[in-house]
Amino acid sequence: MRTHQILQAWGKILKGEPPSLSIEITRECPLKCPGCYAYDDAHLGGGQTLRDLNDRRGQALVDGVLEVVDRLKPLHLSIVGGDPLVRFRELELLLPQLLARGIHVQVVTSAFRTMGPTWPNLDRLNVVVSIDGLQPEHDLRRAPATYERILKNIVGQRVTVHCTITGQMMKRPGYLAEFLEFWTPRPEIKKVWFSMFTPQIGDRMPEILGPEERARAIADMMQLRKQFPKLDMPAVVIQQFASPPQSPQDCVFALTTQTFSADLKTSITPCQFGGNPDCSSCGCLASMGLASIADHKLAGILPVGTIFKASIKIGQRRASSGAKNNGQHPANDTLPILPSKEKVCVPTEQAPS
After folding, report:
1. In this predicted model, what pLDDT tens digit does every residue of 40-91 receive, in sequence order?
2. Is 323 a residue whose pLDDT tops 60?
3. Which residues pair with 267 in a beta bridge?
4. Which side of the chain, N or C, has fewer Cβ within a 10 Å radius?
5. Rounded alpha-carbon distances, angstroms, from residue 178 to 149, 229, 250, 300
6. DSSP 175-228
7. Of 150, 87, 145, 91, which is closest to residue 118 (Cα–Cα)?
8. Would 338 be classed as within a structural domain?
9. How far apart, in whole angstroms, are the C-alpha atoms of residue 286 and residue 289?
10. How many domains does the chain have?
11. Which residue segment(s) compose the domain that 134 sits in?
């Protein structure tokens, strides 16, 4: 993140507003991937699942997304699903309007179909293609979004490849290097990201990395980032995988991102995974990236995270006070309440830099 983006986000936090928004714009996906958190029974908190929701399509979806965006005014919007390309026609209408509002937009897809021909030229748009490992494993897990189809559908595009590292991958030495050797030479790939599989508490799945596999994945990424410039992961971010935030209350990403499901009303908590995620095994790249910023010490003394937590509390008070003055209850889209565990330094006039 650039300094001016951090300052913009800090301004939103001080007003009690989440700077980031994530919307599952459809309940539909042509894939049935093992371990997909979006279709987990606990994703929406139990009682209903993503497939149970009444989602929108056509102009109703376009209007609904714009209403949410204009109400919350996020700086960054992630469009997820399901698979957003199921609603390709609506995306073609939505993206220019979202970008015209100055929002940074990220579309996360399996690339099971072609994308808009103008997408590579749209400023502030990042298209992320999810690829689960090398071709034999990926094609088995993610058909019909096979390697063959992805390679065909990204021609002429500029995309970020995202791969979720699993326990199965780390049982084979050199797996991540082989993955990068295949994808990074291709002109359509502008960068590559790795995350790690994040389970729910109590899960017993082969995708879960054991402690040794997690440590080896970290060591591999630290080495590979030197060999493959397109692996867009700073060392400080990779190192965060060794000590992920231990709860949603400690996770900067969870605290600053509002997530809605496909009916555009159901809020997903405590983070994008929903349910009861095992934070001790968190592998979310966004969480690690923001945690690395929070750990940075200004002048080598004051952690940015200390200022961040103080700012969240200021924002909560302002949002609550404003709602009371207007005779309203505090809105559901304000920042979540932080537990008061310790005293923190409250920032005055100086912004973090």
Report:
1. 999 999 889 999 999 999 999 999 999 999 999 999 999 999 999 999 999 9
2. no
3. 260
4. C
5. 20, 15, 35, 38
6. HHHHHHHHHTTSTTEEEEEEEE--PBTT---TTSPPHHHHHHHHHHHHHHHHH-
7. 91
8. no
9. 5
10. 1
11. 19-299
